[in-house]
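Q: How would the structure tokens look for this protein?
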Amino acid sequence: MTQTKTLKKLFSRKACVDRVKRYQGKVRAAVIAGQFNEVEQLLCSLETAQKQLEAVYAHR
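A: Here is the predicted structure in token form.
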């Protein structure tokens, strides 16, 4: 694998991990604040982000 591809994969993984963490925090904050109407949408976004993260790690 070339250095460029390796760096691209590493940055992609980092971006996906950050996205999952961000959505986890938003879900947590929405639940604490009692904004249950937003929780469902945030959970869907979190699920999408988790699937993207899994896909990035699956392509080794």
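The two ends are 10 Å apart (CA to CA).

Helices lie at 3-33, 36-58.

Upvote if useful.
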